[in-house]
Design a protein that fits this description.
Elements: H1 2-23, H2 37-48, H3 58-68, H4 83-89, H5 97-119, H6 128-136, H7 138-146, H8 150-166, H9 169-175, H10 189-199, H11 203-223, H12 227-240, H13 248-254, H14 264-279, H15 285-299, H16 312-324, H17 329-351, H18 361-376
Length: about 375
């Protein structure tokens, strides 16, 4: 009982501290946290008003962006996320855009830090390691700068891993609703987690996810009954308009083929499902999450380089092996140096203003480092 009271008091103190810091006025930092938050906020604002919010009627978005967010460019920005993201941002639409952007900037920072701490669960020493790693990771800083919502996908996976390990199966499943905000980031991971849950008869986890999904759908129907049509239009637009993404599809697009690459993920999902079936009885779920995230970033038909923030999940796993001594010192030092050098290259590439297709190497290299660490681990923390 006393332990529960202490935990509740600590959580309450953290919430009060976070709310207090969010209220502290700070000067605008050259549009920090505003760029992508503008269409997200505008889309969520339209949903709250019961109006079409994705792409079906661009005039709605254009009107809100220009009248309420100070948008002055000749084109309209669109919100590339699912309607569950609109629900997550609804509270921010009750504030003026400038204030809401500040709140979201603070929220994003806390979401990232808490996610890193959750991923370090049961590793009681050197908590600064995951915090430092996530804060110097190039995609993290880019996501904060742009005001991205991919941080919520990171949080959803971190919460799932935490609750799954602490026995909170229903909450673990409910946490997965956050991953649906940008489903292309979990294009392999989420289906495999559902399959694994069915195989393990983890009905509480599946019930948690289903309950969260139905609840979100019900709220969306209440706010805007035609949301499914609007969401389908958004998906169709995204799948039919390919850009140079940091994926195999983006590499094909950069080479002139904008059709072949968009279906690679289907073959990848089939291959991943077969691999899961063959290994299901001896499969470590955390390893499945890590590998499917890295492979999914390569196979996804859409995406942006800052979406690679979710690579922090397998990276923190590698750092856990290093800190816990599961790798010999020579191997550990080599892998950490390669990770640091890769991050340095990412920062350098940002200065060159390259196409996102030039960042497709990041998940591939991370996967190679991860498999090397996994193969050389002594098995004490697999």
């Amino acid at each position: 009982m006393a332990s529960g009271i202490r935990k509740a008091a600590a959580i309450a103190a953290l919430i009060i501290f976070m709310a207090g810091t969010a209220m502290i006025p700070v000067p605008a930092l050259a549009g920090m946290g505003v760029i992508d938050f503008r269409p997200y906020w505008s889309s969520s604002y339209l949903l709250r008003q019961g109006q079409d919010f994705p792409l079906s009627d661009s005039s709605n978005m254009d009107r809100i962006e220009r009248t309420l967010t100070g948008w002055r460019e000749t084109y309209t920005m669109h919100a590339w996320f699912s309607p569950t993201g609109n629900l997550a941002l609804l509270p921010y639409t009750y504030f003026p855009f400038e204030r809401a952007a500040h709140f979201w900037l603070v929220t994003n920072i806390y979401v990232i830090l808490i996610s890193a701490a959750l991923l370090w669960f049961k590793t009681k020493k050197q908590i600064w390691v995951p915090i430092f790693a996530v804060l110097i990771f190039s995609p993290t800083l880019l996501s904060i700068k742009y005001g991205q919502v991919n941080t919520l996908v990171l949080a959803g996976l971190a919460l799932f891993i935490y609750f799954d390990k602490t026995g909170g199966n229903f909450l673990a499943g409910a946490s997965l609703i956050l991953t649906t905000i940008k489903p292309h980031l979990v294009i392999l991971t989420l289906p495999l987690l559902i399959l694994n849950g069915i195989h393990r008869r983890n009905w509480r986890m599946l019930a948690g996810f289903t309950t969260a999904l139905i609840s979100c759908a019900a709220i969306l129907f209440l706010l805007y009954p035609s949301w499914l049509v609007s969401f389908w239009n958004l998906v169709f637009s995204g799948m039919s308009n390919f850009r140079e993404t940091p994926t195999f599809a983006g590499i094909f697009a950069a080479s002139g083929d904008r059709q072949f690459g968009k279906w690679i993920w289907v073959a990848g999902l089939m291959a991943a499902s077969i691999a899961w079936w063959m290994q299901k009885n001896r499969l470590d779920q955390q390893t499945m999450i890590d590998i499917s995230l890295m492979a999914g970033l390569l196979l996804s038909p859409i995406g942006w380089s800052y979406d690679q923030i979710i690579l922090i999940i397998p990276i923190i796993r590698i750092l856990k092996w290093v800190v816990r001594g599961s790798l010999n010192k020579k191997t550990a030092a080599m892998l950490v140096m390669v990770l640091a050098a890769a991050n340095g290259v990412l920062f350098y590439e940002r200065t060159l203003l390259l196409s996102d297709a030039w960042f497709a190497w990041t998940p591939a290299l991370t996967l190679a480092i991860y498999l090397t660490a996994l193969g050389k681990s002594d098995g004490s923390f697999v």
